[in-house]
């Protein structure tokens, strides 16, 4: 059975974001095909996609390498988040479905429960799901794709410190969902902009001296990508 290129792309991207591949590390089709248990064809397609997303660069006579973004490029990502996430929230208020609203409210309830019990690892995952669902509720595939790619890149370049009062970000999430439920686009935009601005001091650039790729094989799940 042929493994879809998007599944291979997701697997490679996840390994880049988590630091399995160091920035600047060379990525060969043979190495990647062996690691993920696929042929070189989906690997080649995946590398082209990752290059278009900015995770990979192709160097003449040297092949594909993990990109090495500058500190300024990393800072630009946070500026982009500040501009795009409020837009996504405003669109969500205009276009959300009842199903989106149900999921968002459920995530807020879970987040508030986890915040009260101080379960930080759960909060990070729930926060990611919240923002992903909010982006999907925008009803704009191009905007959703941009926000998804932006979250991947920020996770790649930044570590996020836990909030001192973990309940506060989830109170902000709840207020955003209330605005989305009322279809109040301007309030959803303003609350999301404030939420993003308050989170900025928690971001710290990751160190770039990460270990080179491990050699153990990591077969791709043929059921499809995780996101």
TrEMBL record:
The keyword DNA-binding applies. SMART domains: FCD, HTH_GNTR. Residues 2-69 form the HTH gntR-type domain. Pfam families: FCD, GntR. Keywords: DNA-binding, Transcription, Transcription regulation. This is GntR family transcriptional regulator.
């Amino acid at each position: 059975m042929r493994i879809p290129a998007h599944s291979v792309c997701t697997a490679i991207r996840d390994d880049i974001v988590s630091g399995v591949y160091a920035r600047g590390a060379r990525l060969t089709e043979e190495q990647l095909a062996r690691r993920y248990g696929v042929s070189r064809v989906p690997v080649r397609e995946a590398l082209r996609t990752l290059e278009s997303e900015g995770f990979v660069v192709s160097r003449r006579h040297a092949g594909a390498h993990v990109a090495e973004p500058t500190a300024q490029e990393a800072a630009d990502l946070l500026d982009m988040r500040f501009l795009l996430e409020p837009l996504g929230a405003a669109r969500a208020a205009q276009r959300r479905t009842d199903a989106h609203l149900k999921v968002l409210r459920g995530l807020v309830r879970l987040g508030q429960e986890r915040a009260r019990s101080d379960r930080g690892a759960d909060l990070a995952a729930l926060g990611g799901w919240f923002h992903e669902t909010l982006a999907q509720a925008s009803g704009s595939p191009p905007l959703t794709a941009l926000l998804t790619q932006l979250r991947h890149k920020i996770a790649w370049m930044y570590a996020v410190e836990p909030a001192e009062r973990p309940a506060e970000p989830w109170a902000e999430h709840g207020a955003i969902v209330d605005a989305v439920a009322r279809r109040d686009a301007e309030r959803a935009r303003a609350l999301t902009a404030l939420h993003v601005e308050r989170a900025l001091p928690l971001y710290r650039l990751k160190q770039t001296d990460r270990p080179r790729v491990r050699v153990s094989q990591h077969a791709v799940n043929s059921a499809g990508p995780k996101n």
